[in-house]
Protein 1
Amino acid sequence: MLERSSSFETLVAELNKLPGIGRKSAERLAYHIIKMPKDEALRLSSSIKAVKEKIFFCSLCFNLTEHDPCSICSDPSRKKDRILVVEDPMDIAAFERSGVYHGIYHALQGRIIPLKGITPDRLRIKELLDRIEKGGIREVILATNPDVEGEATALYISKQLASFDLEVTRIGLGVPMGGSLEFSDSVTLGKALEGRKKFS
Amino acid sequence: MRLLEVSLENFRNIKSMYIEPAPGVNLFWGENAQGKTNLLEAIYYLVTGRSFRTRYDREALPWDAPADTTSIIRGRVQNPETQYNIIVAIDQNRKEVSCNEKALSSLGLLWGKMNAVLFTPGDLEIIQGTPSARRRFLDMEGSQMNTRYLHHLQSFNQILKQRNALLKSDIEEENLAENLEVWDEQISEHAAEIYYFRKMFLERLTRVSQEIFNNLGDTGESLDLVYDNFLGQKNNGVIDKLTIAAIYKKDLKRLHSEDLYRGSTTCGPHRDDFIIRINGREARTYASQGQTRSLAIALRLAEIRLMEEYTGHAPLLLLDDIVSELDEARRRHFLSLLKPGYQTFITGTDADTVAGSLPVEKSFHIKGGEIVLENIDI
């Protein structure tokens, strides 16, 4: 058994700060790192350093990027007249993986949560309005999460956009593809029915 | 619906216990403080994931147990379609509920798998207590009968917390309206659903409990349950959900500065109540002890019938120390109203607590957290 040195404790404490990592997991990871070959461990530490030095937020859409503007914002083949509004850059990654969307994005960097002191002015809503004010946008698609905070955020933005001449839409909510109606809960089914559309 | 097996480990004063209840009436008898009510509490945990005695789950742990002890309640349930294995595990820090070896992410997923109607001496609070006791009654029963109601309640409470946090923050009054509106819009939809359910539920409960109340011996007395709700008289009897939501949203807006001043939401279903009247007089102040007991029991008996109507299943009946509190006439009436066909769990101080009134199939003598004698009477 290793004697508990202070550098070990520091590493555990730092790992412990990460989301989803409790004290025990932090210790397990720390032991693992100690057992790792030195070059592998250093690669981990230098890659952490690299992302902190090289990656920042796109000044237009607030996606994660190494170049400003980001590769999506500067891609000439993208349709620049529609903005998909999401909470976090991770959501952009999800849409990109799906390959179904060819417009541009805007990451709010969070959502309205008064309980945590997150008010609309803490989000990138003003920057979204600035982008729209510059013109050329015909549609804003609100793709915040379908829970009460995400819904409140979408509502807030839609009210801010009311004075602009553009279409504001909300992504469809309801039964997931490949899912089974039988196993959907009643709330989801209710939403799906509410959001039904004409079969054409 | 039937509970086939219950086993307990480290639950309050019970170290280890295994029971195969009979499909009919089961009696737990023994002196006070031996663990009878603990057994009912454990069964209630299997149904709702909660205790009926405390908000603090860790009280389920034996008081002298080492810090790393886990309380485990296991139950096997047969309902018409399928069997469920339900496990509730509680330690110092958390509670985990699983069904058929799968952990449930919220208690809402447990609700509805099994239903129970519980009678406890604490039910007198429904008549005599504060509005919150009556709301708890509505919410516990409503959630068991209709999981959509539970969803609306949970969402309502979640939004209410956010809204109140906003009201307590140092927000400028001129920004108040645009910040509150996004919550008002959502909260009013849930409030309308809650209103609608409570209104319908209370109407049905009035009808059913009136008849039962009279059968319990208070013949000829009229019983009314009046929904004292956040809309007041403004809805003019309309119960269209969109209209209700619109009225409530307008009220919330009117009260924006009042709410800001108080730092919380002053109007809404979280303040609802229902008024119980006997012959037009409020039971809370005017009912006698005996009437209050009959009333509490009438509400629970009515609940059994409503639960069956809503869910299509006969609920389990859990009777904690009820029978001993009633006078002879009311006891006879009460037990005669418990029709056969329900799996029932009764506690009492002696083996013939319900003798002559209910056909006990299995009786368990509980002493010091153990079963010292198990009898099967056929």
Protein 2
Amino acid sequence: MIRLEKRRMPSQVWTWAAPVVAVLATMVAGGAVFAALGKDPLVAIRTIFWDPLFSEFAFYYRPQLMIKGAPLVLIAIGLSLGFRAGIWNIGAEGQYIMGALAGAGVALAAYPLEAAWLFPAMVIAGALGGWAWAMIPGLLKVTLGTNEILVSLMLVYVAEKILAAMALGLMKNPDGFGFPGSRNLQQYPSATSWIDQAAGLHWGVAAAFIAVIAAYVLLSRHVLGFQIRLAGQAPRAARFAGVNTARLVLFCLGTSGALAGMAGLFEVAGPSGVVSIDFNAGYGFTAIIVAFLGRLHPLGILLAGGLMALTYVGGDMAQANLQLPKAAIQLFQGMMLFFLLAVDVFTNFRLRINLRGAA
Amino acid sequence: MEMLINIAAFMFVAATPLTLAAIGETVVERAGVLNLGVEGMMIMGAIVGFMVAVNSGSPVLGLVMAAAGGMGLSLIFAFVTQVALANQVASGLALTLFGLGLSALLGQGYQGVKPPAFPQGDIPLLADIPVLGPILFQQDPVVYLAIALTVAVFVFLRFSRAGLVLRAVGENHDAAHALGYKVVRIRIAAIAFGGACAGLGGAYISLIRVPQWTEGMTAGIGWIALALVVFGAWRPLLVGLGACIFGGIEAVQLNLQAAGVAIPVSLLAMSPYLITILVLVIMSAVRTGAPASLGRPFHASS
């Protein structure tokens, strides 16, 4: 007779062991999938997790890790605040797109002006774009109690349609010989987010680190961070303690929207360069996995973002060297979240094995 | 007139995948489980049904296996949420991300392949009635199946003993447990039924409505189905009606696009999503009762 017994306190050990176990389990299950695809599982796992860091060509791939990791961490930090408080913003992808459009719009309107204020203005516009897009589910939730999960998700599809309309219409490069997509912001010195392209360093990387530190301070030192944690763990107690739930909802959704919007702007003004119909790479959804894998903790998210960036970069390598299909990596990332959620049971429950049968 | 008949006939085609997925989710939510993975189960059904139909040449077998595929995926969710007691919102999201990845992987090499044609289900005599015939009686069999399923679920929940137990589990799982009902087993069964329905709905898109396979082809229909359950206030007949309204909007929207009306295409294309938001806003103002235990994990010890 095997049964689960609730722990009085969540296990400290399992809180941090669960993600590690989940990653290992994903490697095993993922290896099985790769084997089923006719690839050597050990080589595939090594290509994804080891080669980008330590192979002889790693100098080329390491900068890629920062490029892929920065938007994931930036978005996941914002999402984690809401997730902790039981506010489910799953439309970060839409906020990312709207932030990119708002920020790039400023640059494209100013073109070819060169000015020091241009890039800061773009960052502010990007944050505002994401913030405004997240405020739609936020305001609807606090005024009417509308479900923020579905509204924020629907707005992703709306944002994608707006992006398509912009890339093919208003923001299309007038000197682009009719090709879709905007001017390349990488080649616009005042507007690019690159600091050092060869090192993989752009302002988004800096922003991600700042966000991690800010979130850490907020959650551990500020009363608002305490209220976020309280609202998530004990909603009734939070109400008695005088926590303003509406303000909390708006703060969490607004912050995550602004961070996602900024991430979008840094991406479009740097690594992507062009407002094109598919410049968004699904970071908004992958960031959900990053937030959970990082246990909704700022430092954990930093590590999880690095790991997830590794699967992107290693996935690209595996695609090039082993002809592993791109979808396999997507599957791999989804699996990781599942394993984490399943393993997490041991954080709150302990397994009791009673061989003599039920008492 | 011709155009109106076309719109009305296509309304049912557009409504069928929504109805199937939303009816399945209605049962799941009435049992107190919030499965946000409808989109993932639909896309799995879409690819599994497509693969089986192409390889076996039998679209009917494709539909059956699509239901099995959706059910298989939903059982992962059932295990994670009912046995391992994980957060249902996060698990549902995981199911969607996982399903999108797995379907994309399975679907490699099926892009641009044409599936075997599905037999038409014209009902003799009735199909020849002017106007009503083409709208109601010249549909494919799955449309009729979706309608029958809606009514069956209504009867099951409203009039059967098992339906009453299922609702009891959804309203108050502790009380149901105290009465001796197997809460976890009932919920797993409901989740499996929801998965099968979603898989069927997905296969309808890839085998009949489009019919073709492209990555991510469900394009949010699973999420709209979730919104429809809220719209229908967790009542099967209202959910079915909501699906028809949405199907109608989709049909009008596509006809307007095709006719080249002076409304921007992008605005028309985003209309289903905007209308979903509008519907959610209206329904939240009305405040209808969700099952009381919706989304709450159940563990017999507490």
